[in-house]
């Protein structure tokens, strides 16, 4: 279970990295996500996310039961410690998976919006060039063209501000990804430590059983 969760996290991290660099594989990933989001794709994704969230709640509930049982007994059971650590690791990994899934969805949405904004800006600039190059003798028509150009300039400024906002969101997403990398490495180290503690506890239990015999 834990190995599967780690595999899903690494797959999501690789998918996020493909969004950050402009490569042919990035276009393929975006096209694939576009197709996945059509039809029954969103429903399937929501069902999987809901199932994972329920499993996360189950792990949290098991952790609460272990804590309550230890508090009632007044004694910390080594087996309960191992189970507590395992549930904590599983809950953390599932939380990361849900968070990374949300990041992938938002990055895909922002990339699509940026593409649309760039196309709109290019079309607006072409219209501005056509208006500037054309010479109209009629003063009334010139005034109308000047008003249209002023309106288009305002639209360009608005689009540029939106583009800057999206760029800042992308930078924030990159910072979140680097933070998640560090957290994932810490989790791996914690998992190794827990495995070592588990082995030590098992050896101690075996020695206690042999002494009791």
Automatic annotation (TrEMBL):
Membrane topology of this protein: Multi-pass membrane protein
Keyword Membrane belongs to the record: yes
Subcellular location: Endoplasmic reticulum membrane
Coiled coil spans: 107-211
InterPro entries linked: BAP29/BAP31
GO cellular component: endoplasmic reticulum membrane
Keywords in alphabetical order: Apoptosis, Coiled coil, Endoplasmic reticulum, ER-Golgi transport, Membrane, Protein transport, Transmembrane, Transmembrane helix, Transport
GO process annotations (BP): endoplasmic reticulum to Golgi vesicle-mediated transport; intracellular protein transport; protein localization to endoplasmic reticulum exit site
Family: Belongs to the BCAP29/BCAP31 family.
Known function: May play a role in anterograde transport of membrane proteins from the endoplasmic reticulum to the Golgi.
Name this polypeptide is given: Endoplasmic reticulum transmembrane protein
């Amino acid at each position: 279970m834990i190995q599967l969760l780690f595999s899903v996290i690494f797959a999501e991290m690789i998918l996020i990295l493909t969004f950050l660099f402009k490569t042919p594989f990035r276009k393929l990933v975006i096209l694939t996500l576009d197709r996945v989001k059509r039809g029954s794709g969103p429903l399937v994704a929501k069902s999987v996310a809901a199932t994972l969230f329920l499993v996360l709640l189950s792990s949290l509930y098991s952790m609460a039961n272990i804590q309550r049982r230890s508090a009632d007994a007044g004694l910390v059971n080594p087996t309960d410690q191992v189970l507590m650590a395992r549930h904590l690791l599983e809950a953390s990994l599932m939380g990361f998976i849900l968070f990374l899934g949300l990041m992938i969805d938002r990055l895909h949405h922002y990339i699509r919006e940026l593409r649309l904004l760039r196309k709109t800006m290019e079309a607006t600039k072409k219209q501005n060039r056509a208006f500037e190059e054309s010479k109209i003798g009629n003063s009334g028509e010139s005034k109308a063209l000047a008003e249209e150009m002023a309106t288009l300039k305002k639209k360009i400024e608005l689009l540029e501000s939106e583009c800057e906002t999206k760029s800042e969101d992308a930078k924030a997403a990159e910072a979140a990804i680097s933070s998640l990398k560090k957290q994932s490495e810490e989790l791996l180290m914690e998992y190794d430590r827990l495995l070592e503690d588990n082995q030590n506890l098992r050896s101690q239990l075996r020695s206690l059983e042999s002494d009791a015999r």
